[in-house]
Specification:
The chain is built from twelve helices and no strands. It has helices spanning about 5-10, 10-20, 35-40, 50-55, 60-65, 80, 90-100, 110-125, 130-140, 145-155, 155-165, 180-200. It is globular, with a radius of gyration of 20 Å. Bound molecules: iron/sulfur cluster (2 copies).
Length: about 200
């Protein structure tokens, strides 16, 4: 491999290709910016997807893995269907976020990350998401004072949801689950084993 090519394909790109889910797609990006321009959250990204891809190529490992931006993707897939190179942008972003979390490099307290973690905890308890309980856990994530202030600020929206039958406070106490909880536990155990194997491979 010539020296120029070696510089262009820096160590971090090689790492992403080897260890990040769908990371092998990063080299296909031609920096057209269509993904970032299509993203409904575009103005809220500190570093939009095309910039993250460029940073990977520029070997900016700490900035990419520590960036809140890789946690911004909501999987709407607008970018995925529009990318002229067929890059699965959403999957790469989730892969980077997951990789950063596994290495302990993800930014602590990032709201999307917190939502993802609490959603997972909530959903895996019974196999169905208990929305009121999830909302309460997020509301009070920063302590009772901030939770109460936010609840008061958003009370009209909450009451509208209750009136429309979209939110039942009683469901926070009860809620339902899947018909086969043992089957669910088996699936989760299998997923956990796969996850542990991936983590072990990272430590090789
Ligand atoms: S749309 Fe595709 S090719 Fe264009 S910048 Fe985004 S990932 Fe790269
Ligand atoms: S899939 Fe993610 S990165 Fe792509 S447009 Fe939607 S939110 Fe933005």
């Amino acid at each position: 491999m010539g020296e120029g090519r070696k510089d262009y394909r820096g160590d971090f790109l090689a790492e992403v290709e080897a260890r990040v889910e769908e990371g092998e797609w990063v080299k296909m990006c031609m920096q057209c910016g269509v993904c970032s321009g299509s993203c409904p959250l575009g103005p809220d990204w500190e570093h939009p997807p095309h910039e993250i891809f460029q940073w990977i190529r520029a070997n900016r490992r700490a900035e990419v893995l520590g960036s809140p931006s890789v946690w911004m993707c909501t999987s709407c897939h607008a970018c995925v269907v529009r990318c002229p190179r067929g890059v699965p942008v959403a999957h790469v972003m989730h892969g980077l976020a997951h990789y950063a979390a596994r290495l302990g490099l993800a930014p602590p307290g990032q709201p999307t990350r917190r939502l993802a973690e609490r959603f997972w905890e909530n959903m895996t308890r019974t196999g169905r998401v208990n929305e009121p309980r999830l909302a309460l856990s997020l509301l009070f994530a920063n302590g009772p004072g901030e939770g109460l202030r936010t609840a008061l600020r958003m009370k009209d929206a909450g009451l509208d949801l209750v009136r429309a039958g979209r939110l039942s406070p009683l469901a926070a106490l009860a809620g339902d689950g899947v018909e086969d909880p043992a089957g669910l536990r088996a699936v989760l155990e299998k997923a956990r084993a796969i996850e542990l194997a991936k983590t072990a491979a990272l430590e090789d």
